[in-house]
Amino acid sequence: MTTIAEKTKDLVRVDKRDGKLALAHIYVAFIALAIGGLCGLLQTLVRSGTFTLPWGIGYYQILTIHGVLLGLILTTYFIFGFQIAVVSRTSGTLTDKQRLLGWIGFWTMTIGTTASSIMILLNEASVLYTFYAPLQAHWIFYAGLALVIVGTWIGGAGLISKYVEWRKANPGQPSPLLTFMVVVNLAMWIICSLGVAVEVLFQLLPWSLGWVDKVDVLLSRTLFWYFGHPLVYFWLLPAYMVWYAIIPKIIGGKIFSDSLARLSFMLFLLFSIPVGFHHQLTEPGISSFWKFLQVVLTLMVVIPSLLTAFSMFATFEIRGRALGGKGVLGWFKELPWGDARFFAPFVGMVAFIPAGAGGIINASHQMNQLIHNTIWVTGHFHLTVATTVLLTFFGAAYWLIPHLTGRVFTKQMNRLAIIQTIVWAFGMSIMSGAMHIVGLFGAPRRSDFSTYGGSAQATEWIPYQIAQAVGGTILFIGIVLILYIVANLIWFAPKGETEFPVAEVSEHAEKTPMALENWKIWLTICIALILFAYTVPVIEIIQNAPPGSIGYKLW
Ligand code: HAS
């Protein structure tokens, strides 16, 4: 018979077999970081006007590798690895069937990633990470991406089934917070990735195979952005999982409110999907009313981030005061600044303040006219995903990898991780700062310097583009440092036990209402909002489809 101690031990340590599955995902994520990061460095050098790519390699080719490997592959693999570990840690070891689904998902994704990457390397798919039509890639590139998505559905099904199993075994009780958060993220992901799956399967694949001559570009972009905006929250929510439920434990505090954390996640589920038009505000073919409606919904999706900021401030202040911090800000210096597991995500949070303000500017219909398609947008997403999210993932890697590999995060590695965070923040401030400023002057994003470098305007932009190259080079040093730390945690760090920190909820928090876990209510509102925001404009787009494209004369 298992004793209570043994049962608890099972729950605090991730089962080795689940750990192996999680680690497989994390390895691919860091390989993607190495290759994608190198391409990022090359890009900034090309844009500075001082460097030409050798061996006929194209600018758009490395830009595609950079965007696909970092934006789509690093994120998705790290998130799945993290989510598998989190569910196994908080809801118990996966069953053999659930783990098998995880492995099938992993290999499906990996076959797809390899196929798509080979096509990009062969210069058969230099279509950037958004693969907008009418840029056309080899059909294997699209098929590969479709496999990546199908793989995530299979792996996701395993995790959702663990949640269902837990709820059945514990009727009337709120599920473990972290598992609940994973399931919200997966629900959002599955609903939104249906859009890109339809785009790839029914538009891009038949077109690239030559079965149809034309593609309805507006419809394809609409389907892409139906997916593309929730995609950015699919990146953000695991970072929020760390902030809400892990950082409090690392700093020795408690979760400020379980209900507030769950509410904020549910609001993301509702408001992150029906907002894709805020990426298409300058596109003809969608009427102003629907753009306006989606701008309003975009501003609604800011609310859960403001709730998160409030909750984090409360957690930090309560802990800082418990440690003796006095006065309005005295608690601040009591926080564990020397602990990289806290410091890296904290710097990510600080970056999210200007990054979020930038997002609100982007979403504000008229201001979007100024920044759209300028390198300001690139500055925005390097602050959000490449700083806020990535620094939080690095902070998580410092305990997650040694926990899974049975090693320890040594003092030297901790010191190096603090340096890594500072290098990253410094390099990113220069690079993203320069991108924001020169974007306001109209410098385009995604443009090969050789196509515009000779113009008078471009000469004014050059100092900022050199600043971007300087920032990019510093960031590359940051990539080398994190890869060194990760390699240490996988192969060389001393053997030992590392804690998987999961915080408890504060005893002062209100009881969590079960309504927050009533999926019937939330999924119904979510689908109703999507139908409301998209049905009429999509019908209009299809009615006006160009002759010869799929959709033409459908109505
Ligand atoms: Fe964005 C474009 C609007 C958030 C990523 N975004 C992009 C693209 C990417 C991206 C990749 O409306 C480019 C896509 C492309 O290739 O074309 N974005 C927003 C808005 C938000 C937002 C309103 N974006 C994100 C996040 C991303 C991301 C998060 C990745 C993870 N974005 C846009 C729009 C465009 C866009 C337009 C299209 C532009 C165009 O024309 O092409 C909001 O979610 C932001 C809300 C955030 C906040 C900040 C809250 C602050 C917190 C930190 C608290 C700090 C603490 C520490 C506790 C309101 C939670 C305190 C310590 C101290 C010392 C003070």
TrEMBL record:
Q: Which GO terms describe its biological process?
A: aerobic respiration
Keyword Heme listed: yes
The answer to whether UniProt assigns keyword tRNA-binding to this entry is no
Q: Which InterPro entries match?
A: Ba3-like_Oxidase_I, Cyt_c_oxase-like_su1_dom, Cyt_c_oxase-like_su1_sf, Cyt_C_Oxase_1, Cyt_c_Oxase_su1_BS
Q: Where is the Cytochrome oxidase subunit I profile domain?
A: 20-493
UniProt protein name: B(O/a)3-type cytochrome-c oxidase subunit 1
Question: What stretches pass through the bilayer?
Answer: 21-46, 58-80, 100-120, 140-164, 176-204, 224-247, 259-277, 289-316, 342-361, 381-401, 422-442, 462-486, 521-542
- CDD domains linked to this entry: ba3-like_Oxidase_I
Q: Which organism is it from?
A: Psychrobacillus soli
- Supply the alphabetized keyword list: Electron transport, Heme, Iron, Membrane, Metal-binding, Respiratory chain, Transmembrane, Transmembrane helix, Transport
Pfam families under this entry? COX1 (PF00115)
One GO molecular-function entry? heme binding
